[in-house]
Specification:
Layout: H1 8-21, H2 33-40, H3 44-56, E1 60-63, E2 67-70, E3 75-78, H4 84-91, E4 96-106, H5 110-116, E5 123-132, E6 135-145, H6 152-155, H7 162-169, E7 176-184, H8 188-194, E8 202-210, E9 216-225, E10 229-232, H9 238-246
Parallel strand pairs: 3-10
Antiparallel strand pairs: 1-2, 4-5, 5-6, 6-9, 7-8, 8-9
Helix pairs in contact: 1-3, 2-3
């Protein structure tokens, strides 16, 4: 019986999948195309085809000029915490970087005005790309009343924390909010910013954060890479909890 020869690209793919399976480090860098070609005795074209297939299957990510990385554990977005994601990422030892895509004043549409409970007021629209260890993770769009935070564009930059500015410049403390989660697919622009293909679904979250008086501070929209994030929520039996408190 004749044994069917394994294609070069399949050989590379199986080899990389074994690396992913045994990977113990988040976002371990894979060997270069040249290294894989020499080590597995296959053509560079076979290596490229295998990497492309793994990328489309969302098993690896590719950073131009840097190389390919196998995906590690996903970051958790805790739906019960204000700014919890940023804090969690940094406390986990990862570097969180902000790239401001645009920041401008505009006349809001009815949806934004209703969310912020304002009328005939300008708002700041801030669009920023957040990178985790230089890997694009999510895109945020924030809407903030200009009257509530005058001259915000003079204080906020890629190196500053908007939550620090709220508290120390405007004496605003975020104490809670509401959020909705759904699934969407990326636009061409989002694909370029997040360095993903259009087949990768995204988590879409939108919500409002408010201060101690329950007044809205910001309305936000965020798209998260689904290959990098998961969402968690604490489920409680309220009746059981209440019963144990009063017994």
């Amino acid at each position: 019986m004749k044994i069917k020869e394994i294609k070069g690209s399949q050989k590379v793919k199986e080899y990389i999948e074994s690396i992913i399976l045994n990977n113990k480090h988040e976002y371990s860098k894979l060997p270069s195309e040249r290294q894989l070609s020499v080590e597995l005795s296959v053509s560079r074209n076979s290596v490229r085809n295998a990497l492309k297939e793994l990328y489309l299957e969302n098993k690896i990510i590719t950073e131009p000029g840097s190389g390919s990385y196998c995906l590690g554990k996903k970051y958790t977005r805790n739906l019960l915490g204000v700014n919890n994601l940023t804090t969690t990422i940094r406390q986990s030892g990862f570097f969180l970087k902000t790239n401001i895509i645009s920041m401008k004043k505009l006349i809001p549409d009815k949806t934004i005005s209703d969310k912020l409970k304002i009328k005939n007021e300008l708002v700041y629209e801030i669009i920023r790309l957040r990178k985790i260890n230089d890997i694009p993770g999510f895109i945020e769009t924030l809407y903030i009343s200009v009257n509530r935070c005058p001259n915000l564009d003079k204080y906020y930059s890629e190196l500053s924390s908007i939550y620090y500015i709220y508290q120390n410049i405007y004496d605003i403390s975020l104490v809670g909010g509401t959020e909705k989660i759904s699934i969407t697919y990326p636009t061409i622009g989002e694909c370029k910013l997040l360095n993903i293909n259009q087949n990768l679904p995204l988590f879409f979250s939108s919500g409002i954060t408010f201060d101690e008086t329950k007044a809205p501070v910001e309305y936000y929209k965020i798209v998260f890479r689904s290959d990098l994030f998961i969402f968690s929520y604490l489920i409680e039996n309220i009746e059981y909890k209440r019963r144990n408190i009063y017994e």
